[in-house]
Design brief:
The complex is a heterodimer of chains A (173) and B (250). Chain A is α/β, with parallel strands linked by helices and 173 residues long. Chain A has four helices and seven strands; from the N terminus they run ααββαβαββββ. Chain A has two domains: 2-88, GMP Synthetase, Chain A, domain 3 (2-Layer Sandwich); 91-170, no CATH class. In chain A, the strands form two sheets. A four-stranded mixed β-sheet of chain A has the order 4-7-6-5. Chain A starts with a helix and ends with a strand. Chain B is mainly alpha-helical. Chain B has one domain: Ferritin, CATH 1.20.1260.10. In chain B, α1 (3-23) packs across α8 (175-182), α2 packs antiparallel against α6 and α5 (91-112) packs antiparallel against α9 (189-206). The longest helix of chain B is centred in the first third of the chain and has 29 residues, at 32-60. Classes of the chains: A alpha/beta (173), B mainly alpha (250). The A-B interface holds A 51, 53-57, 84-87, 89, 113-116, 118-125, 146-153, 157, 171, 173 and B 33-34, 36-37, 40-41, 43-48, 50-51, 106, 110, 121-123, 125-130, 132-133, 135-137, 139-140, 143-144, 199, 206.
Chain lengths: 173, 250
């Protein structure tokens, strides 16, 4: 029992060294993609992962990276389970992961999971609670959205009205 | 064909065909930000398509995976609503088609969260946050285009008038849809239509657009495989590679 626990913990620790293919400063564990690790009696290791966005093209690379990382450490029998529910949320991102994003120039999610009852966008003229999204370069919260989507589905485009730099914002999801 | 397989293919085909239409605008969007947004929405829809097709293929049990379902079927086997295959037109047409779809999609997916089928509920849960984001974006653009310049207002009103007759098909339930409602798999049409009309009316009011009559005559047939001439051209492009080089792999 104890050895099984240790083996699973060891796998978690190995996986915390596997980077996201799109944002290499954050690990798959910090991003909240790895949901569970189970060591089975026959020696198989079952890793449960969950997609960030349903169309995220990085998911295949992520699955391959996990299998490869465990294979080079001697685990040849790795099974990946893709779990849809509960759906991935940026709430699962670790604090150290958020700090790493910030250091990389991507503003981390500023609040909790997207409110699915909200039918209106932040650009709408209706009064909206304004999110204080800090510029990852100068720290000012005097920023404004330019586009709801950035270079990947998980990001939006912002610009800083103080230092004038455009930046990516990791959307709340 | 089994009712649930049929229903899953309808869900997948709606997302697939709209995703393909939006992808046609890749590199041609009216502004860089819009280009990226359109293709990101297309990507979300493509991801959702894969989840619906994968489940449909498993339930059907004839060995058809997501690629076979996307590339090895002809127009009459596609079950998407006619709205989704309409051409991109000008940007008001593109966004009006998107807004009509997103509004229905949002309320549908919310309804599917409590589906009696756990896998459908899980796919809905996975999709809902994406769909919410899409609806916020398209509603916002309808307001900005409708209440923009004289030209943008006129084009947006024309798009609404032109596409309106395609907006009602999603609420016309046939035996397949009704079987899904009876089994607790899918939400009933009446409530969805009420929610759809209320949201469209509120956005149209803000956009200074005139909403066409909810009782207007509506086109239908897409769900049953009776399509407009547009779908064949769309598939000719989408399926070209697999038609020319069957089962080619990356």
């Amino acid at each position: 029992m104890n050895t099984a626990m240790t083996a699973a913990e060891q796998v978690w620790s190995w996986l915390s060294e596997v980077s996201d293919p799109e944002i290499p400063v954050i690990s798959l564990v910090d991003l909240g993609i790895v949901r569970d690790v189970q060591m089975q009696a026959g020696g198989a290791c079952v890793v449960t992962i969950t997609p960030t966005y349903s169309g995220c093209p990085a998911m295949q690379v992520i699955a391959d990276s996990i299998t490869d990382a465990l294979r080079v450490r001697g685990l040849s029998d790795v099974k990946l389970v893709n779990q849809l529910s509960p759906a991935w949320t940026t709430d699962w991102m670790s604090e150290s992961g958020k700090a790493a994003l910030q250091g990389y120039g991507i503003a981390p999610p500023a609040e909790k999971v997207i409110d699915i009852s909200g039918l209106h966008s932040p650009i709408s003229r209706r009064p909206q609670p304004r999110l204080a999204i800090a510029c990852p370069i100068c720290g000012s919260t005097h920023t404004e959205i330019t586009s709801q989507f950035g270079s990947t589905p998980c990001k939006a485009l912002y610009k800083c009205l103080d230092c004038r730099e455009p930046f990516d914002y990791f959307k709340c999801h | 064909m089994d009712n649930k397989v049929n229903y899953l293919l309808r869900l997948g085909d709606n997302a697939m065909i709209l995703s393909q239409r939006l992808s046609e605008l890749c590199g041609k969007g009216p502004a860089l930000e819009e280009d990226m947004a359109l293709t990101n929405v297309a990507l979300d829809l493509l991801g959702q398509t894969r989840m619906w097709y994968e489940y449909a293929g498993e339930l059907e049990g004839r060995g058809r995976d997501e690629d076979k379902l996307a590339y090895h079927r002809d127009a009459h086997d596609f079950k998407n609503c006619l709205l989704l295959e309409q051409p991109n037109g000008n940007y008001a047409d593109t966004m009006m088609r998107q807004f009509f779809f997103d509004t229905w999609h949002y309320f549908l997916i919310r309804g599917l969260l409590s589906s009696s089928d756990a896998r459908i509920a899980a796919i809905a849960e996975k999709s809902l946050k994406e769909v919410t984001y899409h609806l916020r974006r398209s509603g916002d653009l309808i307001v900005r285009l409708g209440d923009g310049t004289e030209v943008s207002h006129a084009r947006t009103q024309a798009a609404a008038d032109e596409l309106w007759m395609y907006s009602g098909e999603v609420f016309v339930y046939d035996a397949v849809d009704n079987a899904m409602v009876e089994q607790g798999v899918a939400p009933a049409a009446a409530e969805l239509r009420e929610q759809w009309l209320a949201h469209v009316a509120s956005i149209f009011a803000e956009a200074t657009l005139t909403m066409p009559s909810p009782d207007a005559w509506m086109q239908s047939g897409g769900k049953q495989g009776r399509h407009s001439e547009h779908l064949g051209y769309l598939l000719a492009e989408m399926q070209f590679l697999q038609r020319a080089y069957p089962d080619a792999q990356w």
